[in-house]
Amino acid sequence: xxxxxxxxxxxxxxxxxxxxxxxxxxxxxxxxxxxxxxxxxxxxxxxxxxxxxxxxxxxxxxxxxxxxxxxxxxxxxxxxxxxxxxxxxxxxxxxxxxxxxxxxxxxxxxxxxxxxxxxxxxxxxxxxxxxxxxxxxxxxxxxx
Length: 144
Fold this sequence. Notes:
It contains 5 helices and 4 strands. It has one domain: UDP-galactose 4-epimerase, domain 1. Strands 1-4 form a two-stranded parallel sheet. α1 packs parallel to α3 (67-78), α1 (4-13) crosses α5 and α3 (67-78) packs across α5 (117-143). By secondary structure, the chain is mainly alpha-helical.
């Protein structure tokens, strides 16, 4: 998979098998794009308001899941019991556990993660549902 969340959602919505390129046990931080954008905005504002030099911050998440747990969570939210998870384990040299320490950005910029994992996934799934349906409709109309 190129990106685990969109590829999993699209595959699940289309009832296609989900192929995981790792062993599925890798632990990662998962952060909604709006929380990441908020962190970048706060950083930009701080740098422009105070004319400070470049600062480096980690933007991490309190949600640390294995790839398999994330995929299962998405399938559960979609209520898809048909799609199979296929573990290919192509990538042998990946970091097994990756968690970013985001204390600095929390302390200095008062940034905090606002979107919880379930809410973020549900919103993202809904976004894909709307677009997949319109793409299917366009394909059907063009085919006639």
